[in-house]
Amino acid sequence: MATDEIRPAPAVPALRILGPLEIWTEDTQHPVPPGRREIVLASLLLAANQVVSLDTLVDAIWYDDPPATARTQVQICVSGLRTSLSTIGLPIVIVTRTPGYLMQVPPGWLDIQVFSSLVADAQNLIRNNEPQDAARHLRTAIGLWRGSALAGTSSRVLQTKGLQLDEKRLAAVETYADLELRLGRHHQLISEIGTLVNEYPLRERLRGQLMLALYRAGRQAEALDTYRIGRDQLVDQVGLEPSTELRQLQRAILTGGEGLRLETDKPSPSAAAERGVRPFQLPADIADFTGRTEQIDAIQRRLVAGDNQRAVRVVMVTGSPGVGKSALAVHIGHRMIDEHFPDGQLYANLGGTTSEHACPTEVLGRFLRALGLPGAAIPEHAEERAELYRHLLSRKRMLVVLDDADASVQLRLLLPGSNSCAVIVTSRGRPRGLPGAWVTTIDVMDDPAALELLGKVVGEERVAAEPDAAGTLVRLVGGLPLALRVVAARLAGRPHWTLSGMVGRLADERSRLDELAHGEMIVRASLAMSYDGLDPATRRLFRLVGAINSDGFPAWAAAALVDGDVDQTTELLERLVDVHLLEIASIDRDGNPHFRMHAIIRLFARERLAATEQPGVIHSGMCRMIGGWLRLTTEAHRRVYGGDYTVLHGTAATWEPPRSYLATALADPLGWLEAARSNLSEAVQQAAELGLDELCWDLAVSLVVIFEARSYLAEWEFTHLRALEVTRAKGNSRGTAALMCSLGSLYLSRNRTAAAEDVLLPALATFEELGDPHGRAMTVRNLAFLDLARGQVDRAAERYRSALADFAIVGDRIGHAHVLSQIGHIELISGAPEAAESHLKEALALCEKVGSRRVEVQVRYRLCELMVDQGRLAAAAEVLAELLQVARAGRDVVGEGRILHRLGVVNAALGRAVEAEAAYREALAVHEQIMDRAGVAAVSGDLKSLLG
């Protein structure tokens, strides 16, 4: 191609280095030869339209150890690149220029050039005081990035240059964030900047922008917490305090500085809603959603209709599996967020197409948490939860989406009571308990809509080139959206295939399609087409991950099933995503994807699994996966308690997940346990189903660390009772005793003393029979707590001393410290403050020695009781203030209310009326927030006494 033949630049750059190195022509991606040729190409693109010396290319490939033939090998690479680029037809030329080569790239063809041009234009717009246009240019520039620049390169030289380019991206992001803050778009910034702050924790400008965005969004506490986390990381990692600017911003947020708010900020009727909890739980909308225009309009009119103002508006969407009910409900939800339902949406998948239907009690628990209620404030019974749920939604304008409902599910409990809210229910049939619901049935797509969808996925030009084949293809799959998407994904992933070739493939299976022409069988046939096109390794992985019961499993869990490498397994999982047999459920805070399999696809995978794999293979894979969850949970528990303290373990073998996953569990153990909680509880359930008694009970009792810390009391009981079934069936006496001991703790926290005694006494008998001092110590400790709750102080003290001796024998220092704290409490109420002080200080020293922050806080709270008893009120107030910060940092709203109340009492005793009143009023607000009537009454009484 002549160098003076100028072709217009493509809409999206064809040469891409802002991410993995890629070459595109229109919608076709061309393979980049790996190894030396890839390094040469990247080096030339980095210096496009500039001469790159042969020595520079040699250094990029071999760094400091080039072979004697290095220059010759580079020349061979350049020759090969010239041939490849000429074959593709790009207007790119590599010319020889002393002392090396120059790659001629026209404007608009290379993404880094486009990026630099957009950034330069944005800077000019900023100088001309045009922030909105500048932000738009920067947003486009940043959108060119697909990950780290030159990701995946093996060249150390190119890795360094990639880091330099990444720095330019971050600078552009920071400038863009400044503009968006200036334009008042702080709400939209929080998620994006928050992700970058987690990725670059020491970058103070980003952290300051996130703090300001949070503050302007009415989230002052989170803004301050963002500063605290950043300061801790700076001090720990580099030994420096935050910059002057960041410290000044923190002080301004603390004092509510006027300079932090936009000049255009004005109070509005929605201000209170902005400050409150606004859940947005809908899954992501489908970018290429097609058709359904009339049904969308009709459903939206019903959801906002005013013809029945006293009843909540309910729309039920029914239809066969795979017809697009869920996608339609989610799409409508996203369309109506801001204008009609500004207070947010709640979403629950009720599992109607699975054997494990969602329990309304559990769904209500998740909804109440999403609405801001802490675990301890959530009632135990379904009816009470439903009453509280209706109360919280009574003055809100919210949309509730109940997906995949079954006829047996009691939806009545999940309906709001207010006409300001609306509900969309999707179901195969019509569930009971929905009088007055407006029902609409979704059918397969008509030909025009199906052809439009096919064009969006595979490319409109391919459909236009073969219109007859496209029409035949749509008819062969019956217009079913799920089937059409599977077929279209195969075509999109293979640009060299023709549509008529795909019709021929379907024709080869005509007898099967004819036989499966009704109902769900259409889905099975469509899935078989995609499945049969996979390579053997990917097919096997697909079958095995079908055994996982999860709404989002990590790649390591799939690797455990096949006992393979995580990176290689991730590649196979991505292939399954490409053909729509899996989907990305979420991305965790470390950037790792979690995968999800549709319930119907999971049924198909399990059919293939049963037909092809031996039961022993499946059993071994599940043992490894559940063993991986146990390994991670054990590490998280150790970090919280400083070791394997106050927990019993069994003999089950574990599986070692990659170090990166272990590092995440150790960095923020409670945060990791919270994020992985549903997978962990499901692992207990699957272990029980498979009869893996040792894995089952060990994982269940290890999970108490999160169940107790965040008040997941229902899950605590469910997992333990399920594990009890399998340990009893297997005759596992130690596992049974460990579970009953743990259930005793649960029942004591609920003040169910009779139930606690019923499980603790047989557990103690078993541990004594087995000669297990650790199990005996934990059970006797719980029985002592039971004695204390019943007012049997002497008997409690005797049992605590017995537990203390056993904890010392097994070296459980935190169990030892906890019992010392309880003995100190007994001594304090018995009038022996000196002995109490001695035991409490000994307990505190043990906690500090092993680094158990959680138990240390409990012991220090006990010490406050002693300080008050000794008249050391000022010291008590100081300790309570520290504990208050810990409670807030850990999102412990219940603890925050109690500490504030006690802080008010102490300040009142000190004569600090102003501080006492402030503490009481904050405590009152917290107790009102969690609807703790007893707490409200107690604080109100003390506040009235203070005010006279």
What attributes characterize this protein structure?
44 helices; Arc Repressor Mutant, subunit A; Rossmann fold; alpha/beta; 948 residues; 3-stranded antiparallel sheet; disordered N terminus; single chain; 6% strand; 7 domains; Serine Threonine Protein Phosphatase 5, Tetratricopeptide repeat
If you had to describe this structure to a student in words, what would you say it looks like?
- This protein is an alpha/beta fold.
- The protein has seven domains: 1-183, Orthogonal Bundle (Arc Repressor Mutant, subunit A), CATH 1.10.10; 186-257, Tetratricopeptide repeat domain (Serine Threonine Protein Phosphatase 5, Tetratricopeptide repeat), CATH 1.25.40; 293-441, 3-Layer(aba) Sandwich (Rossmann fold), CATH 3.40.50.300; 447-532, no CATH class; 536-613, Winged helix-like DNA-binding domain superfamily/Winged helix DNA-binding domain (Arc Repressor Mutant, subunit A, Orthogonal Bundle); 614-731, no CATH class; 871-948, Serine Threonine Protein Phosphatase 5, Tetratricopeptide repeat, CATH 1.25.40.
- Helices cover 63% and strands 6% of the residues.
- The chain is built from 44 helices and 14 strands.
- The strands form four sheets. The protein has a five-stranded parallel β-sheet with strand order 8-9-10-7-11, sandwiched between helices. A three-stranded antiparallel β-sheet has the order 1-2-3, with no helix packed on it. The protein has a three-stranded antiparallel β-sheet with strand order 4-6-5.
- Strand 2 and strand 3 form a beta hairpin.
- Helix 5 packs antiparallel against helix 6 (156-182) and helix 38 packs antiparallel against helix 39.
- Mean pLDDT is 84; it is low at 1-5, 263-275 and 509-522.
